[in-house]
Design goal:
There is one protein chain. The protein is α/β, with parallel strands linked by helices. The chain is about 40% helix and about 20% strand. It has helices at about 10-30, 35-50, 70-75, 85-95, 135-145, 160-170, 185-190, 205-210, 225-240, and strands spanning about 60, 80-85, 100-105, 115-125, 145-155, 195-205, 250-255.
Length: about 260
């Protein structure tokens, strides 16, 4: 396992590491339970990977935390490396997935070889990296093979939920000061020569807020079993009608040009 020396971290990396070391216990409880996993699978992972054959792929779950999304890659037959800057989270990842390699490293400087991966996924990590989001995408592009895939889901800038989120961020200690939605159009413009943009799906409403993000709303964990099914049904109905303006999240699949 590689280790990140604290003196080599930039301010964004240090903020990210310290934030997740601090909230790791509650994060794993609320984001790793069966209800959040069902949400990730139905509304995030399946749209990202529809039509892809994951079996045999060399994949990195970047900014993996303790591995809340890793199981979906493993179930598809991928060989997975977990990568996270937090030593607390990467130790949890190793205990949870002893069959996987674990790297304590920054997504801005993974240390992985050029063109060595078939797939990199990021579940809700890029919006923690401002002002270095494009630097992270450039590093991901470097380690992907030609034809490899970058799959990710993030809160988008420019939506009505993002306006409310920014107000919330100012008062809630769960959020770091640099968190903000990703500016997807600007990202696509910056990387139009490196990637083809295959999937772009906006969504996220009732279940995104109350099931996946129950920790943010301080909902007692035991309550989720009573309302998760209804919220996910409502979200299935709402998703085709939302569009970017009313969406809490966007799911994307980019493919590195050959």
């Amino acid at each position: 396992m590689s280790e990140v020396s604290p003196e080599k971290l930039n301010s964004t990396e240090a903020l990210q590491r310290d934030q997740y070391d601090r909230i790791s216990g509650g994060y794993e409880l609320h984001y790793g339970d069966e209800f959040s996993q069902a949400y990730r699978r139905r509304f995030m992972f399946e749209p990202m990977t529809d039509g892809l054959e994951l079996r045999g792929m060399n994949a990195v779950d970047a900014m993996c935390g303790s591995g809340e999304s890793t199981r979906h890659l493993l179930n598809g037959g991928a060989r997975v490396i977990g990568l996270d800057i937090s030593p607390v989270e990467i130790e949890k990842f190793k205990a949870r997935y002893p069959e996987c390699e674990a790297l304590q490293a920054s997504v801005l400087d993974t240390g992985l070889p050029d063109a060595s991966l078939d797939l990199v996924c990021v579940f809700g990590g890029l919006h923690h990296l401002h002002p270095h989001v494009n630097d992270a995408v450039a590093e991901i592009e470097r380690v992907l093979k030609p034809g490899g895939y970058f799959i990710f889901t993030e809160p988008p800038a420019g939506s009505l939920p993002e306006i409310l989120r920014q107000l919330w961020y100012q008062f809630d200690h769960l959020f770091a000061e640099n968190e903000a939605g990703i500016r997807l159009d600007e990202m696509k413009a910056a990387f139009s020569e490196q990637f083809d943009f295959e999937v772009e799906r906006f969504g996220g409403s009732f279940a995104y807020l109350l099931v996946l993000n129950s920790m943010v709303f301080r909902i007692p964990h035991g309550w989720k079993k009573y309302y998760s099914g209804l919220c996910m049904t409502l979200e299935r109905w709402m998703e085709p009608l939302q569009g970017q303006l009313f969406s809490c999240s966007v799911v994307c699949r980019w493919r590195k040009k050959k």
